[in-house]
Amino acid sequence: MKKYVLLFLLFAAVANAQSGYYLKINLKNCKDSLVYLTFYQFDKTLIKDTCTHIKNGKIEFKGIGKLDRGIYSIVGQQKSILFDFFIDEETQFLELKSDAEFMYAKELVALNSKRENDFFNYIRFIGDQNREIESAIQAARGKTKLDSTELVRTKQKAISAAISAYEENFLVQNKGSYVASVLNLKMDKLLKDVPKASNGRPDSLAVFSYYKKHYWDGVDFQDDGIVRNPFFATKLNNYFEHVVFRHPDSVSVELDRMLKKMKPETTMYKLLLGHFIYTYETSKIMGFDKVFVHLADTYFKTGKAKGIYEDESVVDKIVERSNKMKPLLMGAVAPNLYMIKPESHGQIAPMGFDKATTSEELTQLYYTHQAQLEKMYVTLHDIKADYLILLFWDVDCGHCQTEVPKILDEYHQFLKDKKDVKVYSVYTQYDYEKYAKYIAEHKLDWINVYDPVHLNNIREKYDVYSTPVIYILDKNKVIKAKKIGSEQIKDIIRNMELEYKLAKN
Q: Per residue in 415-424, pLDDT tens?
């Protein structure tokens, strides 16, 4: 009976070991008393394990459950990377050693994986080529600018050719492996036999078309291991910043095409959808909030973003944010505003809006005085102008105090040039005395309005959470520019002027 129990325990121990991972690393001259096992995940580096018992450079990591495929790093206690290596299904039990004095990767050897050694040899080769470039740069110093440029260019060309040949051979030798898929991701797919254009020069359009078409060749978007390497985030960002046509509609099409290649339950899908929604919600490029709204409509409102956040309420917040931004997209008709001129203050003050403390009180006051108020409104949509500058500002805002005078100067110059430009200037606060004083002192001779009856909810309606905020509308109140600086107004109106002329022809 004891014999069977022992056999059972032995088989259980073997099964448990096979389901886990074990990394044995011997860095002969390692002085660290603590090291981390980290892995790349898209644009971040995360800690997987920690070894605190290091003796004579001997490091061990072991755990239950297999390590995910990816590029991992051994990181010293000073948070510097000692070296990178890869993990796949065949390298869950890995033994590495290095007798190097300092640069451990220089003599790093895998005792039980030929493919891991191929990877280390590749890293060493790239390091040698980089040092060759540095040597060429050093040798070029002291030479004439022409000679030094030619020397470095010639060396770079030779090294680039050597790297390409090495990498292509590496892919052939390691075809079908995880490490080959990582290297494939790093390599640019370039057109080798470039045709001539009609002017006799190399056809740059053909070069770019080939580059874009083959950019993601060999990349499996259903493989989560692809996001666990240091090249993917850079390649992805380069694609959307320099390869895809930078227009919101083009970007949205490319995002959909890419996300359709992934399975919703994968880490890849969750990471990228989260990355894309954040990128385009916070984009500083005017008009790219349209991409954010598209993603929210397509994935977050439809349940396709389930599970990408630990806190599911984040999805609701994104949908809410998208709903606020949608009416303010470029090309949309600007929401109407029902504002009142400061000259009407004498009629407004006795109504008691400034003394109301609840929304119910404000609503009751509004309906009590509705007929009188409607005669005072200066609505945004009633303003007739080819070019309408919609300005939200505050007397106490330091940035506004700089920008408002600049916009005023621009406005007067437009009038001198006999352009049909008007400014609908909205004071976002309620201190009438301070507001009226500023208007008088700075001679703001445009359309000055504010909202003493608290009707418009400006912050929500126009996404005004800081000031100043500038929109430019065309004669149909269509949003042509938004959240710009005063220095951009002139160029935007000039472009609108050209659009009007083209529309007439």
A: 999 999 999 9
